[in-house]
Amino acid sequence: SSGINAEYGVVEFKVKDEILVERIAGRMIHQSSGRTYHEVFAPPKVPMTDDVTGEPLMKRPDDNPTILKRRLDIYHEQTAPLIKFYKEKGILRSIDAMQSPEKVFDEISGHFKK
User: Fold this and answer.
1) Tell me: the pLDDT tens digits for 51-60?
2) What is the C-alpha to C-alpha distance for residues 90 and 2, in angstroms, rounded to an integer?
3) What SS3 class is residue 97?
4) Which of left, alpha, beta for 52 (phi over 0: left; psi -120 to 50: alpha)?
5) DSSP structure class, residue 16
6) Is the pTM of this model over 0.90?
7) What is the pLDDT of residues 58-83, one digit of tens each?
8) Is 49 helix (H, G, I), strand (E, B) or coil?
9) 48: left (phi over 0), alpha (psi -120 to 50) or beta
10) Do residues 18 and 69 touch, judged by C-beta distance below 8 A?
């Protein structure tokens, strides 16, 4: 026995690498509050400045395209065997995570409803 219960499943969230890089490389954080901003999707009113306090925002040093692309290469290399394994067991559920959050939730829910 493989020890895998077919009642459960493994969810793979599929997002194109270039979209992940855009999403992650553009994020900014107000360190003391944890508020997040994004250069494209949720920019602050004043560049690199928290809307509430006026304090500077920060970007994580590892949130840059070069490092992110390398991290994604490692991710794909290390997860490919797992994806194959769970697919062969018939319990992999691949979800298009480039849809709206509501559609992603509905798709996940649909896979696991009895």
Assistant:
1) 999 999 999 9
2) 12
3) coil
4) alpha
5) -
6) no
7) 999 989 999 999 999 999 999 999 99
8) strand
9) left
10) no
Q: Enumerate the β-bridge partners of residue 12.
A: 94
Q: Judge contact between 94 and 12, C-beta under 8 A.
A: yes
Is the separation of the CB atoms in 92 and 86 below 8 Å? yes
> Does an H or E element contain 68, and which?
helix 65-89
Tell me, what's the pLDDT at 1? 45
pLDDT value, residue 108: 86
Token output for 30: 């107000």
51, 44 Cβ separation under 8 angstroms: yes
Check residue 114 and give its pLDDT.
55
Q: If you search the block for the tokens 């829910």, which residue do you land on?
A: 109
